[in-house]
Amino acid sequence: MTVLDSRPDVPGDPHGRMMTPMEGPEALISEAGVSMAPVEDLGAGRGPFWLDDWLRANATDVLAWRRHIHAHPELSRHEFATTELVVTLLRAVGLKPWVLPGGTGVVCDIGTGDRCVALRADMDALPLTEDTGLPYSSTVEGAAHMCGHDAHTAILLGAARALAGAPELPGRVRLIFQAAEEVMPGGALDMIAAGALEGVERIYGLHVDPRLEVGRVGMRVGALTSAADLIELRLTSPGGHTSRPHLTADLVHALGSVITGLPALLSRRVDPRSGTVLVWGAVHAGQAANAVPQDGVLRGTLRTADHEVWTALEPLVASSVESLLAPLGVGFSLDYRRGVPPVVSDADSTALMRAGTEAALGESGVASTEQSSGGEDFGWYLEHVQGAFARLGVWPGPPAPQSDIHRPTFILDERALLCGVRTLVHTALTTLA
């Protein structure tokens, strides 16, 4: 297995820090480490001693794992090679991981005892073509790690191997390497169905945040992300000539009525404090300017930050669509696909994660963060156990630009990988203490 390092003729990384040229044409992943440019460990010296020692000796391995995964992305439910890599690296330090029945996704326990805390990372890539110019860019056309899941996987691998070398743990740490976060309703449901949360008292996760400076972790009590559902509405009409709309059912007019009317209705029937928003993303109907089409389709996403509102949205949307279309004479079918619940971090788990982050990175390492309208299937875990989710800063800071996720140009500061390892390790130790 190989991972490409920065080109020898490139004196710096994308963020301007000097890099050491490679000793050969490629860097090998091995127990002896890899020939790669080191990155600064922003939490160095904060201990425990075995974690400092492990990161000092293996930091470049963490980078190598991330770069290999980045260069070889796999889409949701096809993360077979990534799963194999995770299993191989866990077994290499004496751990006993098991793979979900579908062949993607890994669960593994470290330590012994009745108490168990879980750490989760997602592994899938996005159906995008990368445009970063990095020497370890995606080698797969139409697939790229533009959401940072390659970093999440490498961070959890680093935390796992560091914890595996700890002199003693006060309980068990369960590692959850999850497939298919990018598709609704999400691979978290597969993990839960397979028993990944059995015996777990709390669960934690991190997600890269390109708006937050590296070395900081953003967290908040309560909703961090929103529920995200998909709506697909198909309309049918006998069709006809646009000169005689009174002799048919005007399908395009009906689509327009729903496009403007449904968001307006919801804004009056849902508590505005819930952050509920419906946005249409696609509409298709007809070809000719003088023909009323016989069919059309409307697709959009409906998001809310309120869990109670989320449970009531499907019947509310169905009744509202029916009332809007009833006078217009068109036929319709509504496909309402529930996505993921909001991620809601409880106060106790957030306090534990905050304490772990402060131990890992210092008091300045903790930042507040805003709620997002984005969806994240980590919310499914929190339907079953308490836990907290946080945002890991990956922005190098000014004057570097902020490169948003889900874009072909997304780049992260690799110093964040070591910050992530420290944060997860300390959070687990703090929770089990």
UniProtKB/TrEMBL annotation:
Annotated spans, Disordered: 1-21
MF term (GO), any: hydrolase activity
SUPFAM superfamilies: Bacterial exopeptidase dimerisation domain, Zn-dependent exopeptidases
Cofactor: Mn(2+)
UniProt entry tagged with the keyword Metal-binding: yes
UniProt-listed Pfam families: Peptidase_M20 (PF01546)
Entry note: cofactor: The Mn(2+) ion enhances activity.
Gene3D superfamilies reported for this sequence: 3.30.70.360, Zn peptidases (3.40.630.10)
Biased composition (Basic and acidic residues): 1-16
Residues that bind Mn(2+): 147, 149, 182, 207, 406
Keyword list, A-Z: Manganese, Metal-binding
PANTHER family referenced in this protein's UniProt entry, alphabetically: METALLOPEPTIDASE, PUTATIVE (AFU_ORTHOLOGUE AFUA_6G09600)-RELATED, PEPTIDASE M20 FAMILY MEMBER
The protein's name: Amidohydrolase
